[in-house]
């Protein structure tokens, strides 16, 4: 594993995952719109479709807020232009006035370096 690439990709995977999975109902369009810029390839399109068709309307209608954190991350493989990082993700979701629910999951994040930036090209629950 190329250590510099692994460190940079792990940081990018962590920060980008938090951006992908965190939003509030008042700013969901801006937040998830900005998150799209952290993605590339087919995953960028599928994320755009999902957020536009499902997440954004649902967040507004039902006053859904989500906050993600990444308590642990580890590079699986890395070279200068491609990396795979395993993340443990906690997400707290609040719907309207209901008590928040917490979900813990793990995700295999694939990143490609595009124009000097690490962008997520695949996001697979494990």
Can you characterise this structure?
The two termini are 21 Å apart. The chain is α+β, with helices and mostly antiparallel strands and 126 residues long. It is globular and about 45 Å long. Strands 1-2-3-4 form a four-stranded antiparallel β-sheet, with helices on one face. It has three helices and four strands. Helix 2 packs antiparallel against helix 3.
Helix/strand layout:
Blueprint: H1 3-20, H2 28-36, H3 41-62, E1 64-79, E2 82-95, E3 101-114, E4 117-125
Antiparallel strand pairs: 1-2, 2-3, 3-4
Helix pairs in contact: 2-3
Observed structural traits:
single chain; 126 residues; alpha+beta; 4-stranded antiparallel β-sheet; 39% helix; 42% strand
Quick recap of the structure?
By secondary structure, the chain is of the alpha+beta class.
Which overall shape is indicated by the principal axes computed on the Cα atoms?
Answer: globular
Report on the biggest sheet: 4 strands, antiparallel
This entry's quaternary arrangement is: single chain
| Mean pLDDT rating | 97
> CA-to-CA gap between the ends?
21 Å
The poorly predicted ranges are none
Strand segment tally: 4
> In percent, how helical is the residue content?
25-40%
User: Which strand order does the major sheet show?
Assistant: 1-2-3-4
> What is the alpha-carbon Rg in Å?
15 Å
Strand content: 35-45%
Please work out how many helical segments DSSP would assign: 3
- Series of H and E elements: HHHEEEE
């Amino acid at each position: 594993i190329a250590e510099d690439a692994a460190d940079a990709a792990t940081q990018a995977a962590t920060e980008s995952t938090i951006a992908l999975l965190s939003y509030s109902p008042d700013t969901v369009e801006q937040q998830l719109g900005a998150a799209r810029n952290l993605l590339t390839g087919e995953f960028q399109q599928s994320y755009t479709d999902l957020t536009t068709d499902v997440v954004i309307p649902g967040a507004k209608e039902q006053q859904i807020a989500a906050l993600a954190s990444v308590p642990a991350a580890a590079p699986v493989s890395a070279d200068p232009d491609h990396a795979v990082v395993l993340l443990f993700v906690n997400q707290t979701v609040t719907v309207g006035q209901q008590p928040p629910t917490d979900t813990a999951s793990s995700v295999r994040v694939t990143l490609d370096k595009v124009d000097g930036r690490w962008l997520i090209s695949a996001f697979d629950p494990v």
